[in-house]
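Q: what sequence does this backbone want?
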């Protein structure tokens, strides 16, 4: 029993020492939104995303912060696969204080009141560790985890596996903006196989049209093939187009991105 107690004391002391040595990237400005320590984004992409995120923050008081780093080791963070990334993302979120615990909103009778609004969002990418994490503010709880999982797998990691990091980050930001606005997230990117199906669909349509024209098919044959192609066309259009509701709550928020918010542990992780 004595040895077990000593072992636990040693593990606790080692864990405390590791936590004390963990460091963090330099926090971006209140409305800069992006720290690209791994140099994955072009100047044009950063500018485009900052404009989108600035508009989102003004209209909803919800900041989305994007952080790219080369590795967890650079910041003395222990690497344990997905769990190490999740732990560091939560610590970074809390260290920077992303979002706000409460915000003041205008009441119907002209007065104002404070409401709980801990809804900041962090997207963290560690390139050499091949890990990514979406970390959510505490007010989301775990209600958005399923959406975050789809965004991570279908919008971010989809591109990362092709080493198109900038596309994956921007696609992730666009989808997370919909989460912040409580809107439907865009459909995922279209794989190359879908374009092959479209090409086959066109070839089959031409072949059928020529065949029916030469053989003088009856009117019912035209109706049948017309129905078939209409159904297939609708399916393909549904695959390659994205949809979402527009709009959002406009509050004219003028604050920054860091107001003491903290993570509740919700979100999603991914690797490539």
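A:
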């Amino acid at each position: 029993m004595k040895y077990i107690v000593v072992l636990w004391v040693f593990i606790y002391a080692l864990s405390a020492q590791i936590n004390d040595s963990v460091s963090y990237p330099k926090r971006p400005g209140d409305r800069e939104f992006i720290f690209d320590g791994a140099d994955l984004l072009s100047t044009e992409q950063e500018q485009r995303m900052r404009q989108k995120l600035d508009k989102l923050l003004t209209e909803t008081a919800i900041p989305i912060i994007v952080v790219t780093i080369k590795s967890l080791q650079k910041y003395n963070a222990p690497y344990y696969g997905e769990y190490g990334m999740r732990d560091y993302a939560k610590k970074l979120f809390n260290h920077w204080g992303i979002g706000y615990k409460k915000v003041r909103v205008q009441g119907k009778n002209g007065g104002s009141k404070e409401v709980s609004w801990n809804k900041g969002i962090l997207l963290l990418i560690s390139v050499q560790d091949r890990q990514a994490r979406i970390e959510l503010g505490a007010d989301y709880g775990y209600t958005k985890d399923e959406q975050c999982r789809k965004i991570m797998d279908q919008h971010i990691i989809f591109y990362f596996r092709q080493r198109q990091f900038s596309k994956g980050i921007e696609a992730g930001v666009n989808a997370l903006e919909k989460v912040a606005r409580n809107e439907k997230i865009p459909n995922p990117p279209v794989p190359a196989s879908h374009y092959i199906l479209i090409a086959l669909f066109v070839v089959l349509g031409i072949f059928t049209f020529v065949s029916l024209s030469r053989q003088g098919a009856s009117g019912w044959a035209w109706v049948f093939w017309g129905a078939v192609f209409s159904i297939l066309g609708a399916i393909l259009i549904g695959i390659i187009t994205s949809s979402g509701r527009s709009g959002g709550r406009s509050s004219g928020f003028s604050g920054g991105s860091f107001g003491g918010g903290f993570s509740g542990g919700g979100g999603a992780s991914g690797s490539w």
